[in-house]
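chain below, 428 aa
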Amino acid sequence: MKVLIIGGGGREHALAWKASQSPRVTEVLVAPGNAGTALEPGLRNVPISANDLDGLTALARQENVALTVVGPEVPLAAGVVDRFQSQGLKCFGPTSKAAQLESSKAFAKDFMIRHGIPTAAHRVVDSVDEGLRQAINIGFPVVLKADGLAAGKGVVIAETEDMARSTLEDMLSGNAFGSAGRRVVIEEFLVGEEASFIVIADGVSALPLASSQDHKRRDEGDRGPNTGGMGAYSPAPAVDSTVHEQIMENIIAPALAGMESDGCRFTGFLYAGVMLTPAGPKVLEFNVRFGDPETQPILLRLKSDLVETLLAVLDGRIVDLDLEWDPRPAVGIVMAAGGYPGSYASGKPITGLELPAPEGTKVFHAGTRLNGETVLTSGGRVLCVTALGESVAQAQARALEWTARIGFEEAFYRGDIGYRAINRERTG
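prediction:
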C-alpha cells in the first residue's frame, strides 16, 4: 500500500523514513518533501504544497493512498483532515475545530481553565496599554505569546517593562508575526524543567509515546531567542513514572474528555509541552501534531510499525496497542543557517552528506532542496543529526561527531543538547 506524508521538514522526513520500514508499505509519497526525502529509498517527493488541500486530496485519490499522515500545523488548522474525511480517505490528524488547541493560544487557555487542566495564569489582550497593565499585574519576568500560529517562534520572555512594551508593540502591530500576533496571551513565568509529552489519541483513549525534551533557545545554556527547536533528546529522565502518571491523569485524560464534551473529538498526535513545577506538571502549550525536532529522536527509538499503529488507531483498536522502544536514548542536534531564527541566506551547498553514517546514526533533512545532484540549504533549520547511544552522553557525543563532518557556510548548532539528562547521569 501507499502512504502519503504531508509536509517538507525534518519531522516529515522522519515520519516518511519510519513509514517506509513497514512491510506493508510499497511506497511513501511526500508532499512536497525536501532533498532528504528525495534521496531516501522507498520515498517519492510530489511537488504539491502542504497547504494545497485540493491538490493533496486529488493526489491521494489518484495514487490510491491507504493512509495520509499530516506533519505541520497549518494544513491541520486549514481543515485538511476534514477534507480527506469528506472524501472517504484515511487521514491521521485532528479536524480543524480540534486543531484550535494549537491554532489559537487564547482558545487553548480558555479550554484548559474550563476543564481544570493545570496551566499558568494568563490574560488575553489586543492593545499595548492593556497588555502592559496585565504584564505588570502578573509580574516580571512575564511570557508573551502570539495568539495564532507562528512556527514555534511566537513566544517572548519579557524581563522588564520596557521589553514587554516593545514586544507588545511589535506583536500587535503585525510586524513580528503578522496576523498571528493581533492578539497576545500574557502568562506568568513558570519555573521548572520543561518536557515534551506526546500521545497518539483516538478521541477517547491515548497511547503515550516516549518522553522527550526540546531545546527552544538558540544558544547553549538555553540562552538567546526562541526558535522552532535547536535539538531534542528522548527519553527525558525528568519524566519518571510518577510524573508520567500525573501528566496522563491530570492533563491528557481531561484534555481528550474536554474536547469530546465540547464537540471537538480529538484524533491524532496530541503534544503537551509541560513545565515540571514544584506544584506538579503544568501545560505551557498544546500542539496538535508531532513535535519538531522531537520526532527525530523519538522515531529513531521506535521499534514498532508506525503505519500499523496509526491504522489501528483509526480503526478503533488503540486499546490493543503496545509500543516497543529501543532502550537506548537518542539525541538530535539541529544544524541551522546563520542568522536563524531571524533572516538567513539560502542556497548554500552542503558537504559531508555522502558519507555513510554509522549504525544508530541518522541525518534527517529539514530546510534542504536538490539542485541537480547537489543538496542546498533552503530553510532556517537545515538538518537534524540524530544518534543512539548507551547513555545520553554517548548519544550526544555520537551526534556531535557526525555533525562535525557535515558543513555549509555559516552553519551553527548547539553542542549541549541533552545537558540536563547528562548532568543527571553524572551525578547519579
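The chain has four domains: 2-95, 121-188, 193-320, 330-427. The radius of gyration is 20 Å.
thats it, cya
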